[in-house]
């Protein structure tokens, strides 16, 4: 929120463009209070985006919690579509819809944030002739999102938040020179945007976008298709969940860890039950059952060590230099 407040404070009331904001929030977040904070720092007219609201210059639209913010023609769309990269609202979903609706007139801005949301979205914008702007990771509180964008997309401008306002005003001003010819919107982005508007797609539609791969969706367990277009490696299931390859990797790691913890709990319970039976019933005092109990103890200790090693390895990966 501090970076967003700093940015919108630089934008004038007569900005000849609409400003649409995706903030990663809890599903029960109080967006009205956030809009009040934003309105206290900017001359733009701020509001929580409402489905079907007109898209007007000089207005700021904040995505509601647990809803995707999209645009079509001159209207705002608010949907409860599937998560993209684990997020709803998702910057990728907004960037794609805006790029399809407004081609080279779109400016995508990625500020401080965690993980990868916005990376594929900036690629969508670039493919439609728009402009990509990223906060300098060196000054970002959470540099993960800006760094991911810079690794994967030909970003046009990388700069501190304090310098973004004048840049954006210049980019939407009358003296800015855009592409000489309007670009044709890629068919795959048009189809993905249409699927997002309708909330869910079909296997036949996703077949048009990519190839079936032997991976499963971390959210719903369905089949995944590797998408053929764009510079960012992405996957999609037919229900609408979308991921970058990095998001798939992290999602599968999380699911695997959850599964291992469940397995550890079940083995602990079985070990304790065998020990209890052995103490109370002479049938379970045999060498065979003692061997089974010792085997379980060894498996429990190995799995516990594995999980702890994984946890320590993650901490080393995320520790500051």
TrEMBL record:
Keyword Hydrolase: yes
One BP term from GO: chemotaxis
One Pfam family of this chain: CheB_methylest
Enzyme class: hydrolase
Statement: the UniProt record of this protein carries the keyword Iron-sulfur: no
Sequence ranges assigned to domain CheB-type methylesterase in this UniProt record: 1-175
Cellular-component GO terms for this entry: cytoplasm
One Gene Ontology MF term: protein-glutamate methylesterase activity
Enzyme Commission code(s) on record: 3.1.1.61
Keywords: Hydrolase
InterPro entries per record: CheB_C, Chemotax_prot-Glu_Me-esterase, Sig_transdc_resp-reg_Me-estase
Swiss-Prot/TrEMBL catalytic activity: [protein]-L-glutamate 5-O-methyl ester + H2O = L-glutamyl-[protein] + methanol + H(+)
Protein name in UniProt: protein-glutamate methylesterase
Organism: Hymenobacter coccineus
